[in-house]
Input
Amino acid sequence: MRAHHDSYGALRVPLFRSFLVVGSLVSMGTAAQGVAIGWEMYDRTDQALALGLVGLVEAVPMFLFTLPAGYLADIYDRRKLMMLSVAGASVTSIVLAVLSWKQAPVGWMYVALFLDSTFLRLGWPARSAILPLLVPETLFENAVKWRTTFMQITGVAGPAIGGIVVAFSVQAAYLLAAASSLAFILFLLTVRLPPAPRIQPGNMFGQIAAGLRFVWRRQVILGAMSLDLFAVLFGGAVYLLPIFARDILDLSGTGLGPEQALGWLRAAPAAGALVVALWMAHRPGIRRAGHVLLLNVAAFGLATIAFGLSTSFWLSLLALALTGAFDNVSMVVRHVVVQMSTPNQMRGRVSAVNAVFVGSSNQLGGFESGTVAHLFTPVISVVSGGVGTLLVVAAWSGLFPSLRRLGSLSSVSAEATRNRGAGPPATPAD
Output
């Protein structure tokens, strides 16, 4: 007899519910800030390359600091690391507001973005690694589905609010991001998170290498991470949205100015993802997860091509919504595979490796898109990226047969339970 599926099981856990709501406020503020920085850089420079450089500047700290941050998440209090990270991001958001208000040289804006990304990278592995401790293991897939649902809600609201706010004041969007970060700090000050096993401090580079070896030896994890890396690297059109909103799409009859259109375009992927996330949250566990993952990434590439070829605002909005819908499915599969295949005392480092892969696909994808748009045209940049995504899916189907054959996500947890001995010994947290 089939077990009863509780669609709201994870949300019935108070700590997870609170963590989800407050974390979503931070994501909303960050999304609004993303709209502001994209609009301001393009508006002040009229250069597609300036948008690509935003991605590059945000990517450099990811490569420099994410893996050490993963090591720190496995030896120190993850709550304190998150607080330090968010506090630093609050300060840099305020600095961005001041620089924007003073119309400081664009170079200083890039410096502030670099510091902002540095602080965010410091806390990212800790924030990802803490999630499996907030709910029972049997509810983790459901928790991931609800987490992605809330991420998409903030992904819709954040850019939409950002577009409205930017139309009145770019600086206010930066201050909104700072305020949301401060709310997260207040939450962390008043809550006690579950203790996590830690490793003994020691050779940082050796411990980081252990995390890299762990990922390399588990082909399902490596395949899922690298598929997202290369697919989104080629399919990242979001950094070019200011160009499409101002110069390419036909806004006649929409009643929107370029700033508002940009906010809706930025929100469209999250809107599509939200619909799918809500549907998935009310469905039982995913079966044949490998096929589901590969098919959805391929569909993401096709939707990206459709967006690049469109000049209609409404058709482009639909295409972007579809990219978010397909990406959400792959996000759920990847996150469950990564977290549930990893011992808790190694989750900080493995989450850091995953963050490097995800960050590479986003930030370097923005640099790639901006550079190709600068050398050729924005349309060529987006369409060629979608074609590249399709080629990656075809290649990964052959390179990672274990990923293609991946069954239900519940089987990932069962396999992980048999391999709990992997990784260095843990030391119980205080």
